Amino acid sequence: MDSASGGTGPPDPNTSGGEGPSSAATGSIAAATAGAVVPAAAAEASSSPAPPSRYESQKRRDWNTFLQYLKNHKPPLTLARCSGAHVIEFLKYLDQFGKTKVHAAGCPYFGHPNPPAPCACPLKQAWGSLDALIGRLRAAYEENGGRPESNPFGARAVRIYLREVREGQAKARGIPYEKKKRKRPTVTATAVVGNVSAGPSQGGGDGDVDGGDGGGGSSTTAADAATTSTAV
């Protein structure tokens, strides 16, 4: 009779009401495990070296290409015996892989920036590509133990050759290479608010500063060249 009257007994641990403490404990363990894994993954990501930049990758390929050229040279050349003349010889060798049309003096399209029809003039390496290549090889030479004073890529003969290529291609293609002017810092006058009045000498000084910026000779640098891949 008492049992049939619907008296309630103690809660059954196997029912849904008893799962609360067990679920909370499981969630705490999972959170603690996740917290331990995340710092480890972050530490591993920070310790892994960053991939080389596009410039560094290109510089390494160019350096390996030049070393292979020295190895295949007849007679074979060592890096210690390499001179500016050998560097120029290497640049001329690369012309066979060029993609820039350079019109000969007798071509009817000589000096024409947009020739209307194809011609039989050869394809060569653009001056900008050669200039950028020499810059990378010059840096790679010193990074691989070479002395700056004996760097063949910085030889005067190489600089002269690059200048001749630039001027020759500018005439042949009708595209002048403009030199970039180095920007000089501008001087700005600050207005002073108060009872101080500017005298005639101050006005003349401002004019001298402005005239110095406008009329002063500024040094020029060679135009930066676009980096192109060179294959042998």
UniProtKB/TrEMBL annotation:
Biased composition (Low complexity): 219-232
Keyword ATP-binding tagged: no
Keyword terms: Developmental protein, DNA-binding, Nucleus, Transcription, Transcription regulation
Domain of life: Eukaryota
Subcellular location: Nucleus
Keyword Iron: no
Main location: nucleus
GO biological process, alphabetically ordered: mRNA transcription; response to light stimulus
UniProt region (Disordered), positions on chain: 1-28, 40-59, 174-232
An example Gene Ontology CC term for this record: nucleus
Residues of the ALOG domain: 54-181
Pfam families: ALOG_dom
PROSITE patterns: ALOG (PS51697)
Annotated InterPro entries: ALOG (IPR040222), ALOG_dom (IPR006936)
Name of the protein in its database record: PREDICTED: LIGHT-DEPENDENT SHORT
Species per Swiss-Prot/TrEMBL record: Prunus dulcis
